[in-house]
Amino acid sequence: MNKAIIIQHIVDKLTADLSLYFKAASAARDEATHEQSKAENKYDTRGLEASYLARGQARQVAELEASIQQVRMMTQRAFSATDPIDLGAYVETERRGIVSAYLLAPRAGGTEVTVEGQEVMAITPQSPLGRQLIGHRQGDAVKIDLAGRTETHRIQRVS
């Protein structure tokens, strides 16, 4: 699997998300500053609520911008089967007969893209699976505790 293509797909998806959040932040800011949002009495909180929403949307925009920049700048080092998994690794795991593909990225955890018919999810070292994968090698099995149950993932491929 070509990591450059995976990274470009992730950047494209984040850029599309950024456009949506930017529009939402702009609309929320307009709502917060609109004359009709001024409080009519001490119990009228429309303007305040709109300003909270605008602030949250603006934070999300900044987060996505930072994610795009960091994912773009990721090193695309090739990993061999004997190299320990680290940031930038493409990893395939098998759990109960199902193969899943991941890219260990500095940000954008949970972002899913389809490349060459394969779904690939970006995971970060801070995620439960990312924490467990770091330092392991192809062929290792890792146990992940999720929602009160333990799952075993066998590392099938690292590149």
Describe what you observe in this structure:
The chain is of the alpha+beta class and 159 residues long. The chain has helices at 3-33, 46-72, 128-133, and strands spanning 90-95, 98-104, 112-115, 118-123, 141-146, 149-158. The protein has 2 domains: 3-72; 90-158, Chitinase A, domain 3. The model has no long low-confidence stretch (mean pLDDT 87). A hairpin with a 2-residue loop joins strand 5 (141-146) and strand 6.
List keywords for this structure.
159 residues; alpha+beta; Chitinase A, domain 3; 2 domains; 6-stranded mixed beta sheet; 3 helices; elongated
- Uncertain segments are none
**C-alpha termini separation:** 8 Å
Strand order of the largest sheet: 3-4-2-1-6-5
Could you report the average pLDDT, rounded to the nearest whole number?
Answer: 87
Query: How many β-strand runs?
Result: 6
> What is the SS-derived class?
alpha+beta
Structure, briefly:
The protein has 159 residues and is an alpha+beta fold.
Give the secondary structure arrangement, pairings included.
Elements: H1 3-33, H2 46-72, E1 90-95, E2 98-104, E3 112-115, E4 118-123, H3 128-133, E5 141-146, E6 149-158
Parallel strand pairs: 2-4
Antiparallel strand pairs: 1-2, 1-6, 3-4, 5-6
Helix pairs in contact: 1-2
